[in-house]
Amino acid sequence: MSGQGSFENPYEDYTSTPQNNILNDPRNGISDVLQKKISNFKATKLQILTTKLQRDVFCDGTVYTGSAGLALYYTYNSLANKNEPCHDALQATLEYLDILNLKGRRISFLCGDAGPLAIATVISYKLGTRRSNSLPDYKELGQRLMQLISILEDSPDEVLYGKSGYLFALLFTNKHISGKEVIPSYHIEKVINSIISSGKRLSLHMKADSPLLWQWHDKVYLGAAHGMAGILYVLLQARNYIKGNDLRAFVKPTIDWLLGSRFQTGNFPSSLGSSSGDRLVQWCHGAPGFVSLCLAAYQAFDDEKYLKIANQCGEVIWQRGLCTKGYSLCHGVSGNAYAFLQLYQATKKPIHLYRACCFMEWCAVERPGTELHRPDRPASLFEGLLGRIFLAEDITRPIDSKFPAFCL
Ligand SMILES: [Zn+2]
């Protein structure tokens, strides 16, 4: 183990001479050897997931811990064939969406009703006249998704349970039903304004240097799951709906302030004034969740400094990203692999794809003692096995891969 929280990285780093059978020859995809290993892993584990772990898949209906995570996986797979989505597969996906029994308590894509509703809306639209009678029309489902706005002001701002997780669901729906504006702009703008207003309020209240500040459970979290990096990243993905002045005078300076909170090592604290030190390198807390934000800021503001920080996050993840906690998307190695895939998409440099593949390889081979924290939900997308399966699927299409439920 190297320091707290991570195993020493046993992989040789990327060099331009052929090595390790990890990448293919043009270095824009994975090698046949690794491809085979990953395919076997995926087939075996998916089999276990849908048989032995079936009960755990249905422990709840959410994307984060429950059956909608598997629905999301099948939906992405069906849509990957852009010209002709596989209708039978989409129909079968409905088995994993329990939209009749939604609780109406939480608003977000990951842990609330918005995830299952947004996925069902997209499936209903794609099936068109082929949908079964038990599945409502996509417009009706879109309406139900919009009605969740009634709990907006009682929700926190963060991604996992809150408003920015709802915003993601709205963007997701419109993205996959293009040209129809199922969710009208005014609705999306209302959500954005609510997030920005509470950011301004807390900043004023705390007399902060950052023009926007958000908290969750009385703490200003900085990372992707509960904190500022996640909220800002979803806002940047929604930037076409944000007024130019809000973007320049509030969002951008908030990002700059946030990036200024970096440790010397290049990693990020999990919360403001955190005393736990430079410990966590995982999507939910620490550098991995900041890669998406920095790359989106680089795209939005065309400033190289953001790309530079994203690259530095990549170095931190390469050194310290083989988490001892395990393989999960949320706080483990598969989530960290996605940071490399995003860097690869932005730069097209094979080093990032190579590093993603090494982390994938780590996730695909059972090594005793590498998952020191047994997940509470061993089948789930964000804590369990499905996260690794998602990565195994995505890494075969590195340019199109998306961190599920976070990147559009
Ligand atoms: Zn986590």
TrEMBL record:
SUPFAM superfamilies: LanC-like (SSF158745). One of its GO terms (molecular function) is metal ion binding. Keywords: Metal-binding, Zinc. GO terms for biological process: carbohydrate metabolic process; peptide modification. GO terms for cellular component: plasma membrane. Residues 14-23 have a biased composition (Polar residues). Residues 1-26 are annotated as: Disordered. InterPro entries: 6hp_glycosidase-like_sf (IPR012341), LANC-like (IPR007822), LanC-like_prot_euk (IPR020464). Belongs to the LanC-like protein family. This is LanC-like protein 2. The lineage of its organism: Eukaryota, Metazoa, Ecdysozoa, Arthropoda, Hexapoda.
